[in-house]
Specification:
With about 150 residues, the chain is mainly beta. It contains two helices and twelve strands, in the order αβββββββββββαβ. The protein has one domain. The model has no long low-confidence stretch (mean pLDDT about 90).
């Protein structure tokens, strides 16, 4: 998707960390993944946030690399495809939990497979797949927002 030259993430107008209250969507696992790969070349978009709609499907991947919006990720383990059961915002730094287990913080978003799905790349010290973690279909996904309460 072409980006406007006025996009605040491209012009630097939105360079500060996201520090605003935002709604956290709920989700459930619809596919457990068991792939790891190097040389992926995932291109994270410069935007630090994405809105998700109810019933939207996103893929979760974890990387032990220093991943940031606008950067590239070469190595990752794929955790799951999740279906959002409510809409909301995903923001860089938000923590993702599955069944209360923290699987990482959002590093950025790869939209190569859009409109089929978006890949949400998470920062984690170890690259572990969903199957290695023992996840099951319908497991609960929780987004824990990052912001400073007022």
């Amino acid at each position: 998707m072409a980006r406007s030259k006025n996009d605040p993430f491209l012009t630097g107008a939105s360079s500060a960390p996201w520090d605003r209250p935002h709604g956290a969507p709920k989700a459930r696992l619809v596919a457990v993944l068991d792939e790891r790969s190097d040389g992926l070349g995932l291109n994270l978009i410069p935007n630090k946030s994405r809105a998700v709609r109810e019933f939207e499907i996103n893929e979760l991947a974890v990387s032990d690399e220093v991943a940031v919006p606008g950067g590239t990720v070469e190595g990752a383990a794929f955790v799951a495809f999740v279906e959002f059961t409510s809409g909301g915002m995903l923001i860089e730094g938000d923590r993702i939990e599955i069944n209360g287990d923290s699987i990482g913080e959002i590093a950025g978003f790869d939209e190569t497979a859009m409109p089929n799905h978006r890949t949400v790349v998470l920062r984690k010290a170890t690259r572990t797949t969903g199957r290695q973690r023992g996840y099951q279909l319908d497991d609960t996904v929780t987004v824990v927002p990052v912001f400073t309460p007022v």
